[in-house]
Design brief:
Blueprint (H helix, E strand, L loop, with lengths): L1 H16 L17 H11 L2 E11 L4 E17 L4 E10 L2 E6 L1
Antiparallel strand pairs: 1-2, 2-3, 3-4
């Protein structure tokens, strides 16, 4: 009797373990632009100037302050084969100017 129960459990578990044919999930409708198109977009849109102000608050000290900054970018070169964007920049923060290349 014990052997019969073990055999039935084994058969039942084998039935549960049988693989079922499940179709793969559908592909997304839109995979978005290619890397080349994205890099071209960045090269075209990045050159320019942005001015902004950061407002900050320190909860511990109870102080507030602002930092104004200006960032200007030029000579943007995007290379999809190297997945790299090079840019010349100039920032002005608190009256100090920084110029560089990344």
């Amino acid at each position: 009797m014990e052997a019969f129960r073990i055999a039935m459990l084994a058969l039942a578990s084998m039935g549960c373990a049988v693989a079922q044919d499940v179709p793969p999930p559908p592909k997304p409708a839109d995979e978005g632009p290619s890397l080349e198109a994205t890099m071209k977009f960045l090269q075209d849109k990045l050159p320019g100037k942005a001015n902004f102000i950061v407002y900050a608050h320190d909860n511990v000290a109870g102080t507030d302050w602002t930092v104004s900054e200006s960032v200007e970018t030029s000579n943007v070169s995007a290379d999809a084969s190297r997945c790299r964007v090079d840019v010349h920049y100039r920032t002005i923060q608190g009256g100090q100017t920084t110029v560089g290349m990344r």
